Predict the structure of Quinone oxidoreductase.
Amino acid sequence: MVKAVRIHQTGGPEALTYEDVSVGAPGPGEVRIRNEAIGLNFLDVYYRTGLYPSPTPLPLIPGHEGAGVVLAVGEGAGWLKPGDRVAYTGPIGAYAHERLIPADRLVKVPDEIPLQQAAAMMLKGLTAQYLLRQTFPVKKGDTILFHAAAGGVGLIAGQWARHLGATVIGTAGSEDKVKLALDHGYDHVINYRSENFVERVKELTGGKGVDVVYDSVGKDTFDGSLDCLRPRGMIVCFGQSSGPVPPFDLGILSRKGSLYLTRPTLFVYVAAREALESGANELFDLVAKGVIRIEVGQTYPLKDVANAHRDLEARKTTGTTVLIP
């Protein structure tokens, strides 16, 4: 038996229970790993609360991101061996000391990258990769707006977009978070608690608006995000930390300048093994070269995951949070 966190009934942070679970031998195409570090994400909150339906019947072990060491390899997964350092983003089930996982969802971690850092970057870094490199391919001369600039994805995206030659505008909810984002690639960061971000974006762009808005906040920012776009600009809604966007008249996209709207998810972008490896390799390369700094903002013991969820929802965390088994 090993320890894991399970959800028996959706609800608040108290729904997360730390208990014994059984982990068997790996089957064909599977690997058993020991997690050394587990990434915390708002996606975990969505599953805990029931906002996203559980992919399996309850009880559910949440968590999509982690890094660790291979313990045993099943038939057909011989490209891995015990002792290999690996990381992953999905499938769900990361909140555990040990777990089984399909081998084709694992990537080897370069020796120069610590496992805590790898766990902190997989879901967030690959999210930044698909947003900036695929959903709306950012190029030199573009101007972008990224909400939650001091969050885990936001800090990576700011550095990456700056590397791509964009002018990078962000929003954050405190002066400390503003300073943190400015230290991670952003040219301008708007404190949305003291400034109207729509008006400020218009000032910064000379009234033109931005080419793309990356919005993981949802309900509280959606209308304003549309007003920040230039004609034929794109809003990329990839989360909803403030709640889902209410139904709206599709014609508003036409009236505000023939705008584009998309609601992508990481797991579609990395569904193919080749796409997962390509995105991870690009991410690891930029981190190894120092183009992107991956800093763990705070750590919690896995047994204290309920406190980690409370702090995340209260926006008390900055950057990346890692759970330590």
